[in-house]
Amino acid sequence: MLEGKTVLITGASTGIGRAAAIGAAQHGADVAINYANSDGPAASCVAEIEALGQRAIAVKGDVADPQTAQDFVARAVDAFGKVDVMVSNAGICPFHAFLDMPVDVVERTFKVNLHGAYFMVQAAAQQMVKQGHGGSIVAVSSISALVGGEFQTHYTPTKAGVHSLMQSTAIALGRHGIRCNSVLPGTILTEINKDDLADIEKREYMEKRVPLGRLGAPDDLAGPIVFLASDMAAYVTGAALLVDGGMYVNLQ
Ligand SMILES: NC(=O)C1=CN([C@@H]2O[C@H](COP(=O)(O)OP(=O)(O)OC[C@H]3O[C@@H](n4cnc5c(N)ncnc54)[C@H](O)[C@@H]3O)[C@@H](O)[C@H]2O)C=CC1
Ligand SMILES: C[C@H](O)[C@@H]1OC(=O)[C@H](O)[C@@H]1O
Question: How far is 192 from 234, CA to CA, in rounded Å?
């Protein structure tokens, strides 16, 4: 589904981003991954993609810094000649109560999750417009764009923001043939919620809320992201795809 395409993914050394990177390579893409700190997992992601017969590079950088986006796109163009797909995935969720939320935790969460997505999407779009043959942007938002979380008052607004960013960029970039969509994962077992879900009672409660009967795995996101990235979704833009095992619709 992505034969001959160059796919860029942020925060792709672990979790959903990594699963999407491997999924894109399985569908024929060359892949550039951005990662923050973890050199080992980034190198093993590159090795896994190369073992599939595709090309891969890993570029270290903090997405909260706007220059990281320019550098990431430039490095991908140097390596592969073009950018066809950007998956903006990097994110953090440091769970904390509202009333005593530290200012630096709020600011960092906004900067990584929302500013990071904004500048990555902008840098990719600038390159796609220059190339002149369209492209696809997929942002990893969340079910949390639609519902709240007591210990996520700094996080859920960033995910609503990412969802909204895709709606507005779908309009701004449609004339260039660039599609912009988001995926809204439910609760997926990754590093981001390892500590939170170590609480067995909470984990069992979350599991019971999912009609499909289990929490998600990173691979559950790979297919939806590859689909939105691919030409199979040629007339899909400004859309948001819930990937939550049915959790959102489960009122009672
Ligand atoms: N796991 C879940 O239940 C859900 C996750 N999401 C979103 O999925 C995305 C991926 O998270 P997961 O795979 O779950 O967790 P994860 O912790 O495995 O992945 C997050 C990735 O982002 C990277 N990252 C963090 N800060 C960064 C920075 N400043 N610059 C560059 N990279 C940075 C991390 O190193 C990590 O590789 C996040 O945006 C998260 O908000 C959305 C809904 C549910
Ligand atoms: C990190 C949380 O477990 C996860 O993040 C989200 O965006 C989901 O809504 C879950 O709360």
Answer: 32
- E strand intervals along 81-162: 85-88, 135-140
The answer to ipTM > 0.90 is yes
C-beta of 193 in contact with ligand 2 (< 6 A): yes
Compute and round to an integer the Cα radius of gyration of the chain. Answer: 17
Residue nearest (by alpha carbon) to ligand 1 atom 29: 62
Per-position b or e across 160-182, b if 16+ CB within 10 A of its CB: bbbbebbeebbeebeebebbbbb
Q: How far apart are CA 19 and CA 164, in angstroms?
A: 24
For residue 188, the CA-to-ligand 2 centroid distance in Å is 7
pLDDT reported for residue 26: 98
Structure token digits, residue 153: 């008052």
SS3 168: helix
| Among 72, 49, 55, residue whose Cα is nearest residue 6 | 55
How far apart, in Å, are the Cα atoms of 145 and each of 155, 183, 219, 220? 9, 10, 21, 19
Q: Is the pTM here over 0.90, yes or no?
A: yes
Residues in Cβ contact with 167 at an 8 Å cutoff, skipping those fewer than 6 apart = 180, 238
Token pair recorded at residue 213 = 């009967």
CA of 90 to the centre of ligand 1 (A): 5
Query: Which DSSP letter does residue 238 get?
Result: S
Domains located in the chain, CATH noted:
6-249 (3.40.50.720)
Tens digit of each residue's pLDDT (9 = 90 or more) over 99-135: 999 999 999 999 999 999 999 999 999 999 999 999 9
Terminal CA-to-CA distance of the chain, rounded, Å?
A: 38
Residue 122 CB less than 6 A away from ligand 2: no
